[in-house]
């Protein structure tokens, strides 16, 4: 668990009221960066020039270009307009057509550093399986941890820190356990080997296969092969590319360079041969006019798959890769070593039969053997017909269900209009029901789905993207010429565990909340997560429960306990629970909490929380939360930089200063993105009165552009923020 600060602030929550209209507000209050910051921009400029000199196809299938200097200059200019005056009409653009929009008052909890980010990448770390069964407090359901007996605590990500003991604990002489979380006293009988020896403990809920464990006869513990991720050589999971070959995939784009012969269509090859023939026959008399080069959406998909086949062949030789293509119907290409199977058109409306067709289909060959034959069949595909996206997804889900941890990559440029899941001329409730069915199947089988929509097309991402969101896959709207990098990105992180659910339990004097749920003062929260990878992060806010103040005087406690309970299934089917218990020192001073705050932890919470609220349709509430959290983040950075400036100049201090500036710009950019998208959307609404009906209507009519932003920000983590920066 990553916290917003080293300290838990035990002061009371404060609310603030904001008055908002639909005008966009700039979120960064700091007008400039120090002079020393110019060097990174120069380096980015040099990188940009180098990439431009490498040619189009090297950049198309190479690394992502650095952001242009002009964009950074615009961002710095935006910083000159602070949002601290949000309640004032201080925008000088008097020509704005939206200045007459009615103002809406929103009350929001003033931001504090009391946030918890649950990083589930910790499941990649091996642990020892504890002996016996976990013991729970009969009152608050916290697992016995023996937390007060440890001098050092493991954070779960390789770091350790000093433990500050809290109230309560276990007395080995009397066998009495006073729960550190609620004060409930219990009598428990434990053998010495059953007492936890560390603050991170795993228990087996269902016995593992014999081949996955070894017994340590010295301490009676089962040493887990709880390595959640199989090695590259052991990974035999499926990767299914579910690709759109409808007529709109013929849409082409002009590119500056000649397409390599390997990727050219028959028409393109014939045109090139004709030109060469004319040159040979007419010699210098033939005027060789500059030739224009075009690439279709389908070709971009084909390039991307071909590139990933080569990568997977080298890095995951035993993975099994298959392709499902869809236009007016569904065609199973498979791994390229078997005859193509065309799904009977009479079955495209039957979810059960489509899933059965997929689950009965086997990918016989690993990618190390099927790579070339599959690539040939992929390049033989052409674009025509309508879009049977739903039936293709159902078949792909059935195929992937055969192996836990498999992945599906859906790539489309249009609305599903044939069979199950069709958006056109169908009730939205039916579409949602279909995708919910797909989510349920994926969660049960441990399948992750990534959804890539083609930029400039409408694919109703608000519904399709939920399939990815709820299976912990990526969602993105991409330029076709960037598909290679996108395919690489969505396949980069292997699944660590499946069927993951978490329970976060705090001291009984605290509360914990998820912004998408009804306000609650409970000291625990539960959440179904599904599949997780190294980057999976879930953020929560917590605070002091005023109704518990009479029973628990938190000011007398030097620290407060926190426990994360992770229920998960490993890639080998081993069902376990991991308990991570920590303590955090308390403070009644917000200044102390701010001085010891974690910038990235606050940034992740800022972005996730704003996006989660916006997804409910309450855009003004999301913006208000965005503003108060960004204010806190910028105050934290200002305090840290003020402290650095008071210290003697050194290379280390200068590096820290620059890093903080980069963190600030990164998170402010994310905050500005959602502010821009929400205000742009609201400006298109005419005199809409705030109501539940309006919020629901916004969800139904959400543009692909906004849906893409919200999906990405709801699953935000530091790596993703750096990528989007």
TrEMBL record:
GO terms for molecular function: SNARE binding; zinc ion binding. One of its GO terms (biological process) is COPII-coated vesicle cargo loading. Residues 33-52, 70-96 have a biased composition (Low complexity). GO terms for cellular component: COPII vesicle coat; endoplasmic reticulum exit site. Residues 1-106 are annotated as: Disordered. Residues 13-24 have a biased composition (Acidic residues). SMART domains: VWA (SM00327). SUPFAM superfamilies: beta-sandwich domain of Sec23/24, vWA-like. This is Type A von Willebrand factor domain-containing protein. It comes from Cavenderia fasciculata.
